[in-house]
Amino acid sequence: MTVLELHTQYFQGRTPTLNELEFETLVSLFPGLLVALADDEFQEEEKTLLNTIATEVVDEIASETLTEIEKKDLLNNFLGELNYLATNSLLWEDNFLYTLSIYIEIKPEFGPFISEMMYEIAKSTDGINDKELAKIYEVKTKLGIS
User: Which contacts qualify for 101-108: CB closer than 8 Å, 24 or more apart?
Assistant: First the structure.
């Protein structure tokens, strides 16, 4: 499944809040969200780090033609989708990871970013626990990254 196909499926029946490029970025952050949720506690430190990463990414993808208000709206849309995915991660996990694995085959330079992000989110609390480590290995295996 391509990112465009996943975008269409994901927003089916509702108004898209992200364009395809922005959604592609959301897909790349999904593994970090899965690690944050792995121990059934989406802790404040994990939320803060994920929001910080999302803010940095939105700044990178926001075109120079966007006003500050439009950038803020984009960030709010992005964070809203992360919150939706936090509640519905099981529903979307297989499709997101499959699509991301295909994306990484085409653009392998994203593999190290995703791997590092997952470890950083896990370490943002009291270190990496067994459930988080297991989820990191599971996701890395599904994505075909080392």
Answer: 101/142, 101/143, 101/144, 102/1, 102/2, 103/3, 103/24, 103/27, 103/28, 104/143, 104/144, 104/145, 105/144
pLDDT of 76 over the 90 cut? yes
Q: What are phi and psi of 108, to 5 degrees?
A: -65, -15
**Please, what is the end-to-end C-alpha distance for the chain in angstroms?**
22
3-state secondary structure of 45: helix
- For the beta carbon of residue 141, count every other beta carbon within 10 angstroms: 12
When pLDDT is averaged across residues 26-39 and rounded to a whole number, the result is 95
Residue 103: its H or E element:
helix 89-106
Q: pTM for the whole thing?
A: 0.92
State how far the Cα of 126 lies from the Cα of 145, in Å rounded to an integer.
25
Token duo for residue 137: 């290995």
**According to the model, what pLDDT value does residue 44 have?**
86
